[in-house]
Structures are given as structure tokens and as C-alpha cells.
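Before relying on records like the one below, remember that each one covers exactly one chain. Contacts with other chains, cofactors or solvent are not represented anywhere in the record.
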Amino acid sequence: MNNFKILMVVLFNIASIYLNAQNDGWHISTSEANNYTGIVVANGRIGILPSQHVLETKQIILNNVYDKESPLGVSRILKGIDFQEMEISIDGELISDENISNWRQTLNMKEASFTTRFDFKNKASIEYTMYALRNVQYSGFLDITITPNTDVLVEVAASLKTPEEYRNPTSTFRVLKDLETTMPILQTVATSRQGRHKVAASGTFIWDGINSTREHQRPELIHKKVSEYNHSLSFSKNLKTNAKFNFSWTAAQCTTQDFHDPQTESERFVIFNLLTPKEALLKQHKDLWANLWEGDIIVEGDLQSQQDIRLALYHLYAFGRGDSDLSIAPMGLSSQNYNGHVFWDTELWMYPPLLVLNQDIARSLVNYRSDRLEKAQQKAINFGYKGAMFPWESDDTGEEATPAWALTGTFEHHITADIAIAFWNYYLVTKDKKWLEERGYPMLREIADYWVSRSVKNSNGTYSILNVVGANEFAPNVDDNAFTNGSAITALRYAVDAAKVLKLEANSIWKTVADGMVIHKFPDGTTMEHKKYNGETIKQADVNLLSYPLTIVKDKETVLKDLKYYEPKLAKEGPAMGKSVFAVIYARLGDAENAFRLFKESYEPNKRPPFGALSETATGTHPYFATGAGGMLQTVLFGFGGLYFTEEGVVQKNPVLPKEWKSLIIKGVGPDKKTYTIK
């Protein structure tokens, strides 16, 4: 049995475990709490990571809110105050993992909700659903239903728990009042670990069937303070047999990153949710997600692939917003890994699928960069170059956020070209000439000037880019890295194209440098990764990026040589998106078999139970890796789907369907929301 067949048997066995916990293309369920990796619910502003433990959350991540990780460290995204934990006691006994049965969790990707249900002894069934509200972006919502099997006394406590790294928390309970309307608010205000931000979280209960703002109608509320880092608000209620009891807990979290007065603003969001009918509030959230899912990918005949693809797309939608002008970190809003910084992962891996299916979020991603253009111009000056030089790792400041010990921060410069490519593609898809004039061309011009200044002219008239770290970060400080040079060529040419669209005169040196840039070759014509490359193991695709997404290497013979030469050199511990590039290229060559093999290899080994969260590497344990999601989605869209970015917008050329699928439908493509069907 060859290696591919062995791999497919292993993957089938893994898939069968997942399928036992799943039900359809929109829902992923599990009843297995061991070896557990949760799936975040997020709205582009906050990410709430559920836990396998009843009524707990693992963490909350706050987008674009940073403080130094240590006095001598770099910035790190903040873990927020945990505002979505709860304790429930029935007849005086606290519910825990040990005294429940029939535990089950379900991710609803269509509505971006996460439901947990279980039975407590023979006394009650409990179900709660978690939301990160898309419509009220700084808030979460927990909807709970208790169904008693006998008469019971229920005691409920919702808490605000502040991570220990925070300073000087102040925890209070107040009842705000306007005429006859009373608004109970549990609140914590604290300072982030190194003092950069004030963070405020507020929460309150909402009861179905009563006026929660009338003191005489709602249950009596009791405030308990364990410490300034942990306090709760509780109530109790007698329930009759089979009489369903529904209530909710809503909370909001704000910081000085976005508000001058986060304490008061967090109260306002909670009050808004309190006084908006629950059905209307949740309908707005669901409607916004329905709008997102107008851009969708439908696979017929392969449920596992359908769920994997949709889970990837769900995460990109959950981590982005069209109204924020913020970007997406490699782990999105699922963790603090990579400090929550923004890398090339956004422009090269996550952005292209979003540009096809949701131009609003795509616009936020490119605007994030143009909002930081001035800092990039300063960086270029500081290193002796012209134009704009972007940081390898970016935070809210736009300055370099990479730890100083990492050579990537000082030498991995292709990020600047990656941004230019994303900018030009945004114009190709949207044809938004006003945006091109105001944001697009100023960026492309500055980046082109940077690459001219970054290049050196050789004695034979060609140009080189020296002393860089390429996409293959296993090879630091090399000359003429293939992808760096190829992306620079592409950025320079796109600047020329943009000038033509706007009827401006392009700097003639842009074309001169692009046409003269060196790409080194082995004697047999295979592309060399860098000037002195000699067959070493590579971290991830580098040379092959010249065939896709770039078009530097186009002739079929060389494309195939590069594929066959570099695939065996990919490190087993490399990141998930590496093989997706190879898959796209094989699909565009019409080789569906190799494309599908590499498609599966690009992410299947990285899945973590029970929901299939993607880890960065096959041997790692750090999900959710949104970069890998972007890579596998590119295989589907630009490989099997045959989509291309062209001067005519998004067009389809020579799609190819894997034999494992009956059909592939891509909905909501481009501004015209086109549908492509491949059978």
C-alpha cells in the first residue's frame, strides 16, 4: 500500500470519529469531553472560547487591544475579563461535571451560536446557548433554559472574573434607575497588566415573561464578592414540574482602546440589551450572519469536506468585520498566540477568500494597512529606505511588534509586497476607483518606491534584493529569495497598472526594476529558493508561490518541476497552509487527484477533536489557525473552483471537480454575488 493510501485510511478513521459527533453541513456536535478543543464564538470585536466544563468559558479575547506582555516584552493582545461564567444549584447541590449526564455541545455555524445541554440527575434538563452578538459588537449573550422534571429550587449566580494579570480591579453592583425603570449592573473595572488600558465589563440578568427592569417583578438579586477579582450576582426561584424556565445573562466589555469612558459605555451596551426584546436582539444577530452566508461554499457528496470548509469560512467571518477597519491575526480571536499580532497571514492567506465572498470584510483588512501607512513610511526612513516599509508583526500602533530576538521582524520584508498585492486585487474585484485614488494608489506608490530603494543594481544591469528572510523562515539572511523578489516584481508592476487606471504617470524606474529583478535557477530550470539554496528542508511554500498566487513562473514545464522538487522538501512540522499552495497549482493544471490529495494533507492532520479546530501544525496544539483556514479555502475557490483575479474582476477558468465530490457550488462571488456550479 503506498503512502497516500495509508494516509487516506488514517484520515478516514479520524473522520469517522468526527462524523459520529456531527449531523449536517451547518452543525457540528459532540458528546465527547476528553481531548477537547473548543470553537470560539466571535463577532470581529470579541472572541469567547467555550469550555467542556459546564457553565464555564475558557477565555475572552479583545480584538486590537494590546499591552506589553512584560516590562521588557513586546505588545500582546489582551485576554478580557471573563463575563460569561455561571453557577447553577438545584435543591442546594451545585451542578458540576461529576453530577450530570447526557452532556452534548453543538456549534451552529449558520447562526454563530454554541449550545451546551445536559441532564442533572433526574431533576432537570439544562440548555444554554452562547453568542458573541454581531449586532452589538462589544457584548455577549447567554440564553439559558431549565426544564424541571419535578418541583425544584434553582439558584443561579453569574460572575465577573478578572485575570490575575490585571491591576487594581474595582468590582461593584449598582441598580441604575430612570423613573420606574431599574437596571441592575454587575461591573468590574481594571487596569491592564502594564497599565496601558482601562478595561470595564458589565453584566445583568434578563428574565423571560416578566419585566426585568421592574424591581417588584424580578427575583431578588444578591451580590457576593469573593475578591475584587471575582464577584457574582445571584437569584433563586422555585420551579414547578415541567414548567420551562428561561432567562438570559448579557454582558459587555469596553476598553480605552475604543472609548474614553469604557466603564459607562459598557453599562450602556448592557442596558441596550436589557431593554431590547430578546427575540429582536437575537434576530438582528442572526440576520447579520445570514448576510455573511450569502457568500458560501456548498459541497455535495462529501459531508466531511463540507463541514471542514464551512468551519474554515465560519472562522474568517467570525474574526472579521466590515465596519471596523481591523485585520485578522493568525489565530483570530481564539487565543493570544503570536501575541494577536497581524502578519502576512492576513494578506496572502485569509484575505483572498474574503475578497471573493465578502468585500466588506476584505475592505477592512486593506484599510487596516492604509491607516498605518504613516508608520510604515517612518520605518522606511529609519532603515535608510524610501517609500513605506511595513512591520512583519503589526499591532494597533502600526510599528514593528516582533520580538527583537526574531530575525523575521528585522529582515522578513516580503510583507510589504504582500500588502501591495492585496490592495491591487481589491481594486480588481470591486472596481472602486474612489478607493483606489484615496487609499489604493497612495499605498501602491509608496511600496513601489520602497522596493526600488531596497533593490541593488548588479554589474550586469539586473537587480537583486539582499539579506532577507523569505517565506521559508528556515533560511535567514539570504540573497535573492524567490518569493521576496517575485512579490516585489508583482508589487512594482501593480503600481504601474494603478497609475494607468488613474491616468497618472508612473515612475519609469518601477518597470525597470521589476523587469530586471533576478530569479535564480538550477541548471535544469528549476527555480532556486535563493541564491545559495542547495536542497535544504523548507518550512513552507516559497518558490511555488511564484506560480500561485503570483504569476512569475507560468510555463507548465517549470511549474511542474518546481512542484515536484519542493513538495518532498516541506517540513513535517511546517504550518497548515503550505500544501494548499501545491493543491491550487495542481488543480489549475487539471490534476484533480494530486490537488485533492494535497488539499486533504493541508489541513486534515491539523484537526483537533471534537469539532475539528485547525492547529497551526500537524504536531502542534494551538488552534484555531485562521491562516490554515484561508489556505484550504483558496484550494477550493482558486483551485477546484477555477477562480482568478483579473482586470475583468473575478472570472472562472477551467474548474476541476475532485472525484470524491458530486458537485461544488460557490455562492456570492464578487460584488454581483454570482454563483458558480462545478459538476
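Residues 433-454 form the longest helix (22 residues).
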